[in-house]
Amino acid sequence: MADPVDILIIGSGASGAAFAWSVAETRMRIVCLEQGDWVKPTDYPARGRDWEARRYADSDIMANRRQLPADYPINDRRSIVKIATYNAVGGGTVHYAAHFPRLHPSDFRVNSLDGVAEDWPIDYRTLEPFFARNDKIMGVAGLPGDPAFPNHAPLLPPIPLGRSGTRAAEAMNRLGWHWWPSDAAIATVEHEGRAPCINLGQCLPGCAQGAKGSTDITYWPLAIRADVELRTHCRVREITIGPDGMASGAIYYDRDGREVFQPAHVVVMAANGIGTPRLLLNSVSGKFPNGLANSSGLVGRNLMLHPWPVVQGWFDDEMDGQRGPIVSLLSKQFYETDPARDFLRGYMLQFGRGPGPVGEAMSGVESGRIPWGDAHHSAMRRYATRRFHVGIACEDLSEEHNRITLDPELADSHAIPAPRIDYTVSDNTARMMEHGIARAAEIMQEAGAHTITCSREVLNYPGHLLGTARMGTNPERSVVNEWGRSHDVRNLFVIDGSVFVTGGGVNPTSTIQAIALYIADKMKQRLDTLFD
Ligand SMILES: Cc1cc2nc3c(=O)[nH]c(=O)nc-3n(C[C@H](O)[C@H](O)[C@H](O)COP(=O)(O)OP(=O)(O)OC[C@H]3O[C@@H](n4cnc5c(N)ncnc54)[C@H](O)[C@@H]3O)c2cc1C
Ligand code: SF4
After folding, report:
1. Is 186 near ligand 2, meaning CB less than 6 Å away?
2. Which residue numbers in the chain have pLDDT < 50?
3. Ligand index nearest the alpha carbon of residue 327
4. 332: closest CA among 128, 117, 106, 498?
5. For residue 163, what are the CA distances in angstroms to 166, 167, 318, 385?
6. Which of 364, 414, 446, 504 could form a disulfide bond with 103, CB atoms 3.0-4.6 angstroms apart?
């Protein structure tokens, strides 16, 4: 049997990497198990001429279509929002757009303010120093002074608005609505050895330039230098329990398919809002017949996914095409609850550039805008590089029936049951979506679009996986306490997006990482009781 380690982290993505870096200073023996491998920047699609085609193949944002050896299948047939993940060192940050807003202070107090959902046991001010620490290591660009948010100072100059961002901003000025350059974890100038963004193209399938702050190039080199061991190709099947009812380690399959038991004094779950509840539900024992840490019955429940309709607009003149980081600005005009509207809470409008020629052709042919045959080239000239889009990032309130369970039939290549997603959109969210779609269309009209389309049935796949092991002070209403410790198993912690109590209406990774750093800090302050 392997020697026990002090801290065993499951998952090397946004949260696992930040946490590993922070606890490394304790000089304890820390191991992270990751089912994927390192991805080489030289293998990213941006290095080849088929870069856009690969986004529909081995670089697809959805594991179900990608089907790489590190991926596990996800049954999302019963969910209107499909699931985007990436399984490698760096996790979702390898494929994310690096849009880096923070949850608003109000997001932590939704019950007090609006009488729905629940309040968090922590608040924005508690997390503020951890946001700042994280921004520094991820390398965040932006502009201080946003009137819609408590002031903070991103380190690097903001991403240029470009043609599409400028067009959108001018339209918003005429409408009198809030907008601000986005915070983004993208090096706009050289930062900590990272080369600056050169507007190569879209950032999703990995940034070959190394400008995008994914944790394989930010936190992990620092954590490994501080002696954290990162084991790749290790797919965890379950967390084990000792006779004392404490977590005793994890069973995983190594790169040769061998079953290995890794004992540990403390186990930290960082496998994301779907991977973590999947593993907890799969860790069944005599003491925990309904899954580990699940006395509340809430493991897997309260899943929040950010329904994300997208409004597209095409213009007579050239926009940016796919050139530049996807996102350059946002609007919080409709973020907070307004009693004059017919829904509670709100949404962020996120402005993004267009696809490349392949994406334009595929969506054009599918919709009938771009025909095959004689008119094909003139239609491509009319549409390609002449669009931008507005994503409506809707806050979906937590509902217990939106959940993850273990699929009774579908399993991954190691016969571990796949997660099954049941997710519907509430009436409140449906009204919010319609409001956002109408406002986004207004912006497009104001900006002069000649063609405007909107997705309702096929929602964007934001890959925001939240709420399935939420934090709280009441063990009957939450899975972990205010610093991520399981109410049921004292040496088991959850640090990823699962712990979110509400989802807000912004991309979550900045907040996920701030929480991971905050939990690491709490652990470091309590080292004397950690192993009790
Ligand atoms: C296409 C796309 C675009 C996105 N854009 C943005 C954006 O612009 N801004 C933003 O804030 N967020 C964005 N996100 C979301 C962002 O990627 C996630 O919020 C973030 O990565 C979640 O961090 P995490 O630590 O919870 O999990 P992850 O980063 O998903 O890491 C989990 C890790 O655990 C590993 N793992 C899972 N199960 C096991 C197992 N059984 N054994 C071993 N290892 C396991 C996985 O392989 C993975 O590496 C995007 C996501 C996608 C997919
Ligand atoms: S646009 Fe910039 S950040 Fe995005 S992939 Fe290209 S170089 Fe990297």
Report:
1. yes
2. none
3. 1
4. 106
5. 5, 6, 8, 11
6. 504
